[in-house]
Amino acid sequence: MDLVCPAGSLPALKAAVNAGADVVYLGLKDATNARHFAGLNFTPKRIREAVAYAHARGSKVYMAINTYADPAGVARWRNAVDQAADLGADTLILADTGVLDYAARKHPDLPRHLSVQASATTRQALDFYHRHFGIRRAVLPRVLAVQQVRALAADTPVELEVFAFGSLCIMAEGRCQLSSHVTGQSPNMAGVCSPAAHVRWQEEGDILKSRLNEKLIDRFEKQERAGYPTLCKGRFLTNGQRHHALEAPTSLNTTELLPELKAMGIAAVKIEGRQRSPAYVQAVTRVWRELLDSLDRNPEGFKPAPEGQKTLSRLSEGSQTTLGAYARTWQ
C-alpha cells in the first residue's frame, strides 16, 4: 500500500518525503482546493520546486483541485488543471464532474483520482466516474464500516484509497453545511472550514472564549488546551449540560485495521492534515512508514510498535483516537 501524506507548505512536503512518504498531496493558494487556509498551500513556483524535490527522492506529488467550481469562475478550476499538467504533478485529485470532464479531455494522459469530496460510496458511483472520466482511483469517504469497504473492494472497477490517520469531521465529505451555515463559506465551495477571518478569541478573566462569526463556540478554563473553533466540535449547553453536543475532538487511527486493509487490496492509505505543521507531518509520516514496512515484512505477525502509537496518540486531536465509522458493525 502507498503512504499518501499531506503538505500545506514546501517545508511540510520536504518533511513528508524525508520521512518516507510514497506520495505527497498539495493544493494551490486559492479556492480550487479544499484546504484553502490563510498562510498555507502553494504558488505555481513552489509546486515546481516541490515536484522536483519529491521526484529526486522517488516520491510522487498529487495535486488536489477538489472543490466544486464556482459557476462564475470555472476558468480558475480549468487553469488549475492546466497548471498541474505544466508543473509536473503526477496525478490530479478531483471532485467536480465538470472539472473531471475538462481534465479527461484536455489532459487524457494525466491520471485522475476521485476526491473524497465527491463522496462516492457505491460500486455504481465508482463505475460512473470510471466510465465517464477514466478515474484510476477513488478516495473513500470516512462514513463506511470496514465490512462495507471490504465489499466495495471486492467489486470495484478502480483502485481504492482510504483515510488512515487524522482529524475527523462529522459531516459526510462533500456535504459540509455547518461552516457554511455560520460563515457563508464551506470546504466544498470556498475550500475553507471555519475561515480564520471569522474567528475571534476573547479573554474574560481566567476564561478564554472562542467565537465564529460572533457565535460562541466554546469557552476554556485556564488549564484547558483551546481548540480551533469549528461548529461541529464546539461545546454547547443542552438540557442543562455544557458538552460536545455534536462531536468531541478526536482523530482517526486505523493501525489495527492495516492487515485487513492490505488483504482487501486497498491501494493506498492517506494521512489527513494539510493544515498541520512540518513537525507534525514528519512525525506522523515516520510512524506510518514504519507501520507499512513492518506489515510488508511480516503480515501474519504484524504488531505495531508501542512507541509509534504513543506518538500518534500525543498528536491526535483531543489526545484521543477512534476507528470511527470503520467500527460500526451495524452498518
From TrEMBL:
Keywords: 4Fe-4S, Hydrolase, Iron, Iron-sulfur, Metal-binding, Protease, Ubiquinone biosynthesis. SUPFAM superfamilies: Aldolase. PROSITE patterns: PEPTIDASE_U32 (PS01276). One of its GO terms (biological process) is proteolysis. [4Fe-4S] cluster binds at residues 169, 176, 193, 232. Its cofactor is [4Fe-4S] cluster. One of its GO terms (molecular function) is peptidase activity. The keyword Thylakoid does not apply. Belongs to the peptidase U32 family. UbiU subfamily. Required for O(2)-independent ubiquinone (coenzyme Q) biosynthesis. Together with UbiV, is essential for the C6-hydroxylation reaction in the oxygen-independent ubiquinone biosynthesis pathway. This is Ubiquinone biosynthesis protein UbiU. The lineage of its organism: Bacteria, Pseudomonadati, Pseudomonadota, Gammaproteobacteria, Natronospirales. The gene is ubiU.
